[in-house]
Amino acid sequence: MIRNNPHKYSVSEMCGVLQIARSTYYYEAKIRDDQEEELTDQIVDIFKKSRQNYDQRKIKVELQKLGWTVSRRRIGRIMKEQGLVSKNTVAQFKPSEFSCNESEAGNTLNRAFDQDQELKVVVSDLTYVRVGQKWHYICVLVDLYNRELLATVQDLIKVWPSSTCLCIRPIQSSSA
């Protein structure tokens, strides 16, 4: 009735006479079952074509190019259901129980950096440096008596090791 008489009466007047909400007239039932499967296939296809790099935002842009209007939340929900995680997802900060300067070994030196005897206290420092696309480490041993550099080791990290095994090589090389 409303669709047949828009030239005579306004939509809001006709909805008022019929005692229905105006939004009911404009509402069109959407068939989501077929769309959901097709949308899921599109998202998976875009994700695979991007070599698992695209996140929700980039997939949304690609879907808009294909004529889809989809929210990022819906894309994220579908990606989660399909187990799709972007390679470029930024890792969230997760606080640990220990901070980097508080080891379980304890503070035996107690900030006594000035020593009166040679080789009584030898300290090491380890740092990682990214060179090009590869990580290298540098480990040094220093005598606190005269601040003499006893040994250095620098190498390419092939497998991410623990810091203790990296410090053993300069100790072994300085004792030899």
UniProtKB/TrEMBL annotation:
UniProt name for this protein: HTH-like domain-containing protein
Source organism of the structure: Gracilibacillus ureilyticus
Domain HTH-like: 35-87
Organism placement in taxonomy: Bacteria, Bacillati, Bacillota, Bacilli, Bacillales
A Pfam family that the UniProt record links to this protein: HTH_21
